[in-house]
Amino acid sequence: MTNRAKINEFLEGILGPEKKFKWKNFDDGLSAFVRMIKLYFKGVYKDLSPWLFINSGIAILYGISNIDLIPDHIAGIGLVDDLAVAGVAIHTCIEEVEKFKNWEAFQHIHEIQVV
User: Fold this and answer.
1) Are 40 and 50 a contacting pair, CB within 8 Å?
2) Which candidate, 40, 49, 38, 36, places its Cα nearest to that of 104?
3) pTM value > 0.90
4) I need a surface site. Which of 21, 50, 103, 107 has the fewest CB within 10 A?
């Protein structure tokens, strides 16, 4: 199994069977994520959940720390806890990006109606 196939399988497990992972969607989501963060820090987008920062921070700290629920040296299952924590953070990011895209589309429609 290739690395891309493994990533697809992992992400489909997070997203659920109804949302098939596509790399184009990943690129679109990543650019939307960057726009969302920029607009948040500029004060334009204010609907960003604090859970995005909390879950991302926990995932980063858990990933770099030496503390593990399941030690990484146990073959086969050692990374399960790391992937679960990362999965929660990724899921939160995906939800926030979808919410942002809806907000962004509404802003665009509103601008068209005003003009």
Assistant:
1) no
2) 36
3) no
4) 50
| H helix or E strand, kind and range, residue 77 | none
Whole-number Å distance between alpha carbons of 72 and 67: 10
Dist CA 80 CA 29 (whole Å): 25
Give the C-alpha separation, 20 to 49, whole Å: 25
How many domains does the chain divide into? 1
Q: Which domain holds residue 70?
A: 3-114
As given in the structure block, the two tokens for residue 102 are: 């809806």
Q: What is the pLDDT of residues 41-52, one digit of tens each?
A: 999 999 999 999
